[in-house]
Amino acid sequence: MEFGEKILDWLEKHEIKVAALQETKLKAGSTCGNYTLFRKDREKNSGGGLAFLVHKSIQFEKVPDPPPDPHLESQTIKVDNLLISNI
């Protein structure tokens, strides 16, 4: 099953290259068309989770996570010289 077809259509229509999402509640096997899905699922309890959708035309790298914080979820990517955080 394709992840959020309405979201993916909207991103394509508006030529969005990087999107940060929260409260994703994603399951294994989600696909994202022309986007690379970079997930960080909530480790405790259900729900939550973060994700970046990065268009496949954009090169990016994962930035190492900061020390764990029991009250905060975060992920960061680097695109060229720009750091983008999802908290």
What can you tell me about this protein's structure?
It is a single chain. By secondary structure, the protein is mainly β. Helix content is 10%, strand content 34%. The strands form two sheets. Strands 1-3-2 form a three-stranded antiparallel sheet, with no helix packed on it. Strands 4-5-6 form a three-stranded antiparallel sheet, with no helix packed on it. The chain is globular and about 35 Å long. The model has no long low-confidence stretch (mean pLDDT 87). The chain has one helix at 5-13, and strands at residues 18-22, 35-40, 50-55, 61-63, 75-79, 82-86.
Short characterization:
The protein has about 90 residues and is mainly beta. The chain has one helix at about 5-15, and strands at about 20, 35-40, 50-55, 60-65, 75-80, 80-85.
Low-confidence stretches: none
Give the overall silhouette.
globular
> What is the number of beta strands?
6
Mind summarizing the main beta sheet? 3 strands, antiparallel
The radius of gyration is 13 Å
Binned, the helix content reads: 10-25%
* Content-based structural category: mainly beta
Average pLDDT works out at 87
Oligomer: single chain
Order of helices and strands: HEEEEEE
Distance between the termini: 27 Å
* Strand line-up of the largest beta sheet: 1-3-2
Strand content: 25-35%
